[in-house]
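LAB NOTEBOOK - FOLDING QUEUE
OPERATOR: T.R.
BATCH SIZE: 2
PURPOSE: Compare the predicted structure-token outputs for two unrelated chains run back to back under identical settings.
PRIORITY: normal
REVIEWER: second-year student, initials M.K.

ITEM 1
FIELD SEQUENCE / FIELD STRUCTURE:
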Amino acid sequence: MNYIKEIFLGKPVDYMHGMFARYGRGTFEGPLLTVKNGPSIKAEGSVHYANILGQVIAESTQQEFSVSGAIHAKREIKVPLKTGKETKKGDIHSVEVKDNMHSDGLKMVYGDYRDAYVLLELSAGKWRLKCKKKPPKPGGSLDAKFCSATLDKTALDEVMEEILFDVRDRNFREAEIRHEIVIEELVGPPELKKDPAKFRTQAKRRGRISRRVTVDGRKTETTQEFSV
């Protein structure tokens, strides 16, 4: 289950903190994705959906993929893939990968690194995922074309379950999902405030996220409070 869905189900878990640590107080443009439903399923969106699209692909088919790209995490990266250049900048570990891997192995990689940026390009038959290799810088404008995917029509069940979890029409032509994140408060122990940098990194974010879904021109909006 992806972190966006978990928030709207009211089930925040520890790893989500890393997804929101980049935000201070204020209002921010959040995850964005467009899904087109035709003979195949095509999706294009912001960095927030790179892991989610990869996980959906891995869960939807049983085959070997050509894999390349990079993983960025706030911990040492150990994956069952052939790795290339490894770097560490501040507290961010980065590693380039290039290998072949079965979808079962990809499920493990995406599952083990849910708190990281798994920016992989996947290719097998009709299945494709493309991602930029480096995550966007904090404070930059939202890149609506950071990642894109082509999925076989057999992935529709998984797409509805994980991405369009609040959409009932399986025969839609185009769906757009936008989110707005409002951080109202950073919460942490008083002693942590003596170190502003550590406080920004470790403090919980308390606020709300609005989800705006447009399906073939029909718009709905829901809002969920969170503390992560």
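ITEM 2
FIELD SEQUENCE / FIELD STRUCTURE:
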Amino acid sequence: MKRILLLLAATVLIGAPITTFADTFTFAAPPTAPNLGAGGPNQFDLDHHSAYTWRIDNVNLTGKTITGATLTFKNISNWDTNPNMLFVHLLDSAKNAGISSFIDASGSPVPSAQIADNFAGSLYSSNPLVNAGTASVLLASKSFTTVATTFTITFTASQLQALNSYFQNGNDVAFGIDPDCHFWNNGIMFQFNTEPSSVPEPMTLTLLGTGIAGLYLKRRRRKAVTQTQA
């Protein structure tokens, strides 16, 4: 009976599906402005006069791999009907923790024709929010109407690869955000999912189950031989 039970247990082990333990990490950017215009209570002030970095620190992903990620701008809209563009970059890091910004445009209002990405090209090399040589990946460049919409950036395979690499490089990552017009919103949220970097392969489980069953049968045979000799 014991042998039958053990063989059944081994069979269950061999046939059991591989179980991975996934985790979800969520980060909300702190509000940087009061509820102005059509902005919500969690508004991250995306002003045409400025460019921003949002650095996220102390994320230890040892033994884990990021399998999916999104960056969501909730209820975002342009404050008028002029041409506009929001540039969003993933950065290896940023000079300052949390939220930082610098004035990148002048005029009141800023001329609508002044649309330029401060996290790309020659402007990036002089950007005071990042150190020279900081890696950058463009996540999105998008314009908006005056009608609020929730805009979600879903990371592509190559962007996920960069995200994994950036976190491994120092347990931090940053976003570079350059709004070229003024965008009302109700907050920014970054979320990603992880799974263990490696899991037992089916062959490993098979060998484990077979080995346990073999050891038990070998023990039973020895016991039988001993009893016969006695």
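REVIEWER COMMENT (ITEM 2): The helical segments are 2-15, 121-125, 157-168, 202-229.
FOLLOW-UP: none requested
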